[in-house]
Each structure stands twice: as structure tokens, then as C-alpha cells.
Write a structure and sequence with these properties.
Beta-Lactamase, 382 residues, alpha/beta, six-stranded antiparallel beta sheet, seven-stranded mixed beta sheet, 17 strands
Length: 382
């Protein structure tokens, strides 16, 4: 007979009391940790032998008086969160395998992304909260209206949003896509792993497909999507050569394609895509990228000076003719200086945006220096 798992069962020792998984998850929806309709808590980390910890405004903070989590408690938590199939995979010690899945907390209307893995101490998992409401573009805080207006009016092209894990890439893309959904009559297909923001078809018709559930891979889903007459395609992440090739081809043949990459800056996104392919294809890839690419948005979340959450800092690359020529020739060294001098086209470097935020007292000098990509910013700040 299988064990019964209860979200409200008190299982985790905190000081003199025991907390349930529901009480731990309630931190994500606690009003004191909210900024607008977004939680300041992004993740919950659970690891054998360590207190349950939350990432609050980018700092990992253990729960006060929390005890080290035992293997037994983690197994119980996973029993609550995972399907029988995923639980069996996560607990299989003979063939260790990571589990990526989602959890819907129906009582609160909140969804989470879960990754379960093992380290040298035993079981561990991370839960990331997924915003229940898609924020408007204004709430996301892009540097200027011109940027999002230009992007949401595109009929074709590739739009990349880059940054480290937890920098808000999915939030930015979802806000852009939902603006199209609200105001344009298009067919939108998303390929996600897992599905994060839930779209409701408005002026557009939206189909969301989950990798591993509705389609086997990003590449397989993208190949299928191209036969489904879409106007807009969202590929959750470009992970391999096949997905990159299909995304470029789709953008070149009249589709608007959104995707993400894990790179620290916009320039790095260009070289990352080209470097995915064999060196003998570099010339043809640079040519194709120069025609397919429309925008690269590279972003970071920077602590506010008032200590109340984080604000978006963004680098914007727009594929104007001068930049297209640099891409065709693979001249990555001049990309930064071109971005720096083309503010009239809506472009800006991370350093320019950080300086703007610092000059308007939104962030501190220390944060501006910490989050810069180029050491020259330190010289400008003095």
C-alpha cells in the first residue's frame, strides 16, 4: 500500500515548533515579501543536513531557527510534490537521475518549477515560484517604451533574452508575448520546459506545449510548430545546434521567434550561437544570423538602493545595418562600441543603464560596480 502524503502535515522542525510544507510555501505568497504582484522570494532550497533556505532579493537566507533537513523529511516533501513516476525516479539510488517538473498549489493558485537532484550528502531540491499573473511590460521595467514597442510590432525575426538563471528572462519574454496576444491577431505557439506563465488567448490564439509532456524536445516541438501556421513562436531555451538552426530558419522565413540563452551580455549571445556549430559553418552562420536576428536583450536584477527588492538592468542590442555588418564578418570586438554610440536607435550597454539607475539614485554605486560587465564603469563612477 502506497504512503499517503499531506501538504499540511507538520514535518519540519523550526525552533520548538514543526512546520508543514504548506507553511513553508506560504512564504512565497506572504504580503511582506511581495513587490507589486511579484514575490521577492524566488526560490526555496532544500538540502540534506542544512536548514530550508529562501532566495530573497538574490540573497540565500536560511529560515530562522530551522533545523538541518533529514533525508526522511526530504523524501516526504518529494512525496507531496511529485507524481508517482517522478518520485520513483528521484528516489532510485541505483540509477541517480535529476527530475525537472512542476507543482501546482491549487489552494493558493500558485505554480512552481522543481528540480530534484543528489549531491554527496544525499537528496536536494529547488523550487522556483512562477508568477501567477503575467506582468505588463510597464511593470517589468524595460529601459524605454521604444524598445518594447519596436519588438512587439515585429512581424519576423529572432529576439533573444539572455542572462543568468533567475534574472527574469521568462518574465520579460512573457510580458512581450502577452502584449502581442492582447493587441494583435496572431497565432502564438510556445515550447517550454516546464510551462511557466499561463496565457489566455485574447486577440491572438495561444497554444502552450511542454517539453517532455506534449513534445519530446525543443527541436522536435519547433519542427512541428513550423507546420502549424504560427506567427509567433517562443522556444524556452536554445540548448543545441538543431534548435538554434531551426530557430534561425524560422526567423528568416517570416516568423517572429523568441528564445533565451544563458550569457552574461548581448555580445556573448552572438558568439554563443555561432560557436554551437562546426567552425567550417561559421561564415554561413554569421551571414544567416545577420539577417535573422532582430534584438538581443541581456538583463540582470540589481538590488534597489532603498532595500525594497530588485530592479531590472538591461543591455539592448538592435540589429541595425551597421551592426549587421559586424555580425556578418564575425567582428565581435566592435559590437560593444557600436551599441554604446547608437542610443538614438534604442541601443544601450549594461554600463549605460547602470549609470542611469545610479544617477537617479535607484541603485547604489557599489551595486553599479558589482553588476557591470566592463571594468571601465568603475573609472566613470570615480
Amino acid at each position: 500500500m502506497s504512503q499517503h502524503y499531506d501538504l499540511n502535515q507538520a514535518i519540519y522542525q523550526v525552533g520548538q515548533n514543526s512546520m508543514s510544507l504548506a507553511q513553508l510555501l506560504n512564504y512565497f505568497v506572504d504580503p511582506s515579501y511581495q513587490r507589486g504582484n511579484l514575490s521577492r522570494i524566488s526560490d526555496m532550497h532544500v538540502k540534506t543536513g542544512r536548514p530550508v533556505s529562501f532566495r530573497i532579493d538574490d540573497d540565500l537566507t536560511p529560515i530562522p531557527e530551522g533545523s538541518g533537513v533529514s533525508d526522511e523529511v526530504i523524501r516526504y516533501m518529494l512525496g507531496v510534490l511529485l507524481s508517482e513516476k517522478h518520485l520513483s525516479t528521484a528516489l532510485n539510488e541505483d540509477q541517480p537521475e535529476d527530475v525537472d517538473t512542476a507543482f501546482e498549489w491549487k489552494e493558493k493558485g500558485v505554480n512552481f518549477r522543481i528540480n530534484v537532484f543528489r549531491d554527496r550528502d544525499g537528496l536536494a531540491f529547488v523550487m522556483r515560484v512562477l508568477a501567477s499573473n503575467i506582468p505588463s511590460i510597464q511593470e517589468v521595467g524595460l529601459p524605454s517604451e521604444k524598445i518594447w514597442q519596436d519588438i512587439t510590432s515585429l512581424k519576423r525575426g529572432l529576439v533573444l533574452v539572455t542572462g543568468v538563471t533567475g534574472s527574469g528572462k521568462s518574465t520579460t519574454i512573457s510580458a512581450l508575448i502577452n502584449h502581442i496576444n492582447l493587441y494583435r491577431k496572431t497565432r502564438i505557439i510556445t515550447l517550454e520546459d516546464p510551462v511557466e506563465f499561463l496565457f489566455q488567448s485574447e486577440a491572438s490564439m495561444v497554444s502552450q506545449r511542454q517539453v517532455g509532456q506534449d513534445v519530446p524536445t525543443f527541436a522536435g516541438g519547433l519542427r512541428s510548430a513550423l507546420r502549424e501556421n504560427p506567427d509567433v513562436i517562443f522556444v524556452g531555451e536554445i540548448r543545441d545546434t538543431e534548435t538554434a538552426s531551426l530557430a534561425l530558419s524560422a526567423a528568416e522565413t517570416g516568423h517572429l521567434v523568441f528564445s533565451t540563452l544563458h550569457t552574461r551580455d548581448a555580445k556573448g549571445a552572438l558568439s554563443r550561437i555561432v560557436d554551437m556549430f562546426p567552425s567550417e559553418q561559421t561564415k554561413s552562420l554569421c551571414l544567416q544570423l545577420s539577417f535573422s536576428l532582430s534584438f538581443v536583450l541581456s538583463q540582470k536584477l540589481v538590488p534597489r538602493a532603498d532595500g525594497n527588492g530588485r530592479i531590472l538592468a538591461m543591455e539592448v542590442l538592435k540589429n541595425i545595418p551597421a551592426l549587421g555588418n559586424l555580425i556578418r564578418t564575425g567582428n565581435w570586438q566592435q559590437v560593444y562600441s557600436t551599441m554604446e554610440t547608437q542610443s538614438k536607435e534604442g541601443m544601450m550597454t549594461m554600463e549605460q543603464h547602470l549609470l542611469h539607475l545610479y544617477e537617479h539614485q535607484v541603485i547604489t554605486k557599489e551595486s553599479a560596480i558589482t553588476y557591470t560587465n566592463e571594468a571601465t564603469l568603475i573609472e566613470r563612477l570615480g
